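hi! just following up on the protien thing from before. the input was this:
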Amino acid sequence: MNDSPEHLVQSFLLGSKQTRSGQRRLELLKKVDSLGSLSKAAKACGMTYKGAWQAVEAMNEAAGVKLVNASKGGAGGGGMLLTDAGKQLMNAYILFQDQMQHWMRHLEELSPGVLSQLDVMRKISMKTSARNLFHGTVKSIQAGSVNCEVVLSVGKSTEVVAQITPSSLERLNLEAGSDVYALIKASWVLLAEEMEGCKTSARNQFCGEIVQLDAGAVNSDVTIALEGGNKISAIVTNGSVEAMGLKKGGRACALVKASHVLLAVAD
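and the predicted 3d structure came back as:
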C-alpha cells in the first residue's frame, strides 16, 4: 500500500468529491469537539445516535487509539470529549481542510474546469471484481424492518434498484441525493428476449442492443448497451447464446434481482 502524503491527498480528494459520506465521520468528530455531546453532534450531522456510535467505534478502530472519552448520562447518552489523540486528529483535519480548499481554488485558477475531472478520476481509480459498475445518486429509499429498497438514478432514464439491510443503510449513511455506486457481478445477470408485455420477479430489467459477444470454451461474455451510455455484461453458457439466437447487433434484456445489487460509497 502506498501511504505517501501525495497518495493520501489524492485518496481524500477522489473519495470526497460530491459525497456526503466521504468526510462525515470527521465532521461528526468536529461537532463532538464543539458541542461536547454525541447526541447533539449526531443531530447536527443528520445522523441517528446509533449510527453516530458506530461511526465513533469505526474511527477508534481505524486510528488504533481512543479518540473520544464518553461520560455516562441519561437516555441518549451523556457528555463526550476528544482525547489528546482525537484533538491531534481534529487539528490536522481542520488544517488539511483549509489548505486543501486553498489549493483547489489555486488549481482552478491555473486551469479552469480541471476540478470537474476529479469525478472521472475517482471512477477509473476504483478496483472491483464486479464487471458491472454503475455510478449515480439515491433517488428514493423505502425502509423496512428486514430489508430496505434503494432506488438509484444512474443515467438518462436508467434506474437501479437494490435491496439491503437496515444496518447497511445506516452504515453507508445513505439518503436521497447521496452519491453511490451499484456493483453487479456478470454471473448474477440473466438474459432474456425483449420483455415488452412480460412480467418477472426481477426488479431490474435493462434492455438494449448487444454490442459485444465474446465466446469462450463453455461460456460467453455478452455486453448490452443501455440508453444513456451505460452498459451491462452477463456471463451465460454458449448453449444459452445459441438457444436464444444472441448475436452482436441484436436485442436482449438483462435481468437482475434487487438482492444481487451491491452498493458502495466513497469513504
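The chain has three domains: 5-121, 126-184, 186-256.
The longest helix spans residues 84-110.
cheers
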